[in-house]
Each structure stands twice: as C-alpha cells, then as structure tokens.
Amino acid sequence: MLTEFRVRNYRNFKDELRFSLESEKNYEFHQNIVPNGVIKDSVVVGYNASGKTNLGRAMMDIINHLTDEKRENGLKVFYSNLYTPDDTVSFVYKFKFDNHILEYSYEKESVEYVQQETIKIDGKKVIVNNTDTCYVCLKGSETLNLDNWDHSISLVKYVYANTILDKKDLDCQIFIKFIKFVNQMLWFSSTEGLKAVGSVSNSGNLLEEICNLKDGVEKLEEFLQEMNLPFKLVAKDKGEGKTIYCQMGDKEVLFSPLMSSGTKSLVFLFLWYMQRENLSFVFIDEFDAFYHTDLSIAVIQKLLLEEQIQVVFTSHNTDIVSNELLRPDCYFILEDNSIKPFSSLTDKALREAHNLQKMYRAGAFHE
Fold it and tell me: What angle do CA 60, 181, 133 make, to 5 degrees?
C-alpha cells in the first residue's frame, strides 16, 4: 500500500506537502482499517480551494509516465505553481510491500516528461536517472542497452518493458509489485462530468458499458437497492444498442432521463466497483457532492469491506466525520499547504465515544 506521498511546486502546493498514511495510534476500534500501521481508508476534509482536488491529481501524476492508461488533458494546464513556474515539480511516493519499503522520487517541468527519477528499495538505489548518471541495479537488467532508450520515456517504465527481471530476486519482486500497484490506481470525480483517470474501462456511455458487463444490470439493481434506491432495471435493445430501462408498473421507461445527479454519480461509482479486483488504490474526489448524508455513509461502509483496495475520499460533508465510520487518524484536514490527521491536531486523548464532528466544528483540530 501507499504509505506516504510528498509533492512540491505543484499547482497550489508551492511548499512541500506531506501526506502520511502511516499511523502509530493504537485505537482499539476499527483496527481493520489500519492494517500493519498503514491507513487503508481515509477522508480528507478542507475548505474550498484548499487543494483537495489538486491533491488527488498530484497523487495520480505517476500514472502519466509509468502506465499507458488514460491521461486527463486538464492536468497540463497550470502544472507548476504560478509563483515559481520555472522550478521543477517534485514528487515522492513511498510504498510498503510485505514489510519492504519502495520509494520512488522524480522531478518534472511538465506532465509528459520526467527529468530525473530514483527508485530505492529498503534504502538501496536500484534505478537512477539524472543529468549526471543513469543506471539500473536489478537482476536481469545486466544486458539492458540504454543506448536504445528514448529519454522522453521514463527509465523506470523502459526497464520494466524491456527487461526480463529475475522473479526469484527480492528486489525484483518488490519492483514488480510496485509497477502492478501503479497500473491499478484510479482517480475519479463526479463533479467534473464523471471523469476518471487510471485503471478502469470507461467508454463514456455508462449504461451501455454496464449492459456489457456479465450480469451488470442485475448487479447494478442490487447495488442501488443496498443504497436504498429501489429501482427495477432491465437491459433492452430497441434498435439503437443496449441500454437500461426502468420498470414503472406495466411500463418500461429509459433509465437515463430518470437519473438524478446523485444517481448518476452512484452508477459511475458502481462501474469501477464492478472492476475492483483490478484496483489497488482509488482516490474519489468530492465523492458525496450529490449524496444525502445517509447515502454517503452507506458508500463508505460498502468500500470499507474491500480489504485489498486503499481508498482516499475527499468531502465537504462533516456529518461523515464520526468514529462510527473511521478513526481519528483516518480523518485529515487539508489547509495552508498542510495535511494532518485529526489525531495529531489535538492534545486530547481521543476515544471512540468522542464526537469528532462536534469537535471539528468547534475548532478543536488546529495546529
């Protein structure tokens, strides 16, 4: 899982922002949410323009040069901080795989090209790409010809695509897990026209795509009913391709015009949920912008059950800030180029019985 992310000079983050997903807190409740000290599920709250959306985009920058997944063209605009546009943008990711730490750091001037990058495994440099030197220290890469390397391509990506790594070697195993993790990252937002970036099939026609999934319509109906939206759905092809109809008594009505903004957002979430076996990390920006609080809570509870997926939610809704859902070390406040968990923003020993929302509104969580 991802344990730490740092970014500097990106959009509104002029100074380095550090987002740590490690916790040393020993709360006796919701221990499954923080396995081995790594926060699996978290919620980031913050005022408008605090940078919640930019945090997600920054965390997903890694897929732009390490994967072949879809890029968001909007990321190219105002890439670096406007106060220091000539400085490079720097990123650092730390991952934990089987108690081993892989750190990937790199710098860019634009979204497309990496200027320098380094991978460390348990503190040892195994890939280095900078103006002074380039080398690879992974078993199986001994015959790799860097003369054929196009420098517009990440060296890390080039190594993975052109090397038969020794899968018995521990460093190679960790490196391969890292590449797989990145290829299974996803960012999506319902507030920007149902956009998704990363490892999810999305043709642009939600209902048609769901029709093409095995038992997709039946599972969508079940999913919506779990969220207390009791639609009766059926797939039909009336000459213009498959789509979903809603049964209204004796009638079958097109589902699309019946969907509210909240239902559309939920159907969009369902599409990636159906592909969750291929996901490692999901960042859901303003996940509940169109949801009632009860629906927001139901969605979080549903995703908490996915033990193999690390999820970061952002939200304005303080009604979901509750120990009944998560823990004080899983709620974060983003403000003034800093992101900190509630647990580190008070001297009070927080317990399960504490009302986190009331404390937050009273200003209890500030440095």
Answer: 75
Residue 49 class from Cβ within 10 Å (0-12 exposed, 13-18 middle, 19+ buried)?
exposed
Task: Give the C-alpha separation, 278 to 184, whole Å.
Answer: 6
Residue 161 corresponds to which tokens in the numbers above? 């695509």
Q: How far apart are CA 246 and CA 233, in angstroms?
A: 5
pLDDT for residue 78: 78
- DSSP letters spanning 319-353: GG--TTTS-TTTEEEEETTEEEEGGGS-SS---TT
**Which of 257-283 are b and which e, b meaning 16 or more Cβ less than 10 Å from the residue's Cβ?**
eebeebbebbbbbbbbbbeeeebbbbb
Distance CA 69, CA 185 (A): 10
State the angle between helix axes of 216-226 and 261-273 in degrees (0 to 180), rounded to the nearest 10: 120
Tokens of 72: 């968001």
| Percentage of the chain exceeding pLDDT 70 | 95
- pTM > 0.90: yes
Between CA 77 and CA 45 the distance in angstroms is 25
pLDDT at position 7: 97
SS3 166: coil
SS3 93: strand
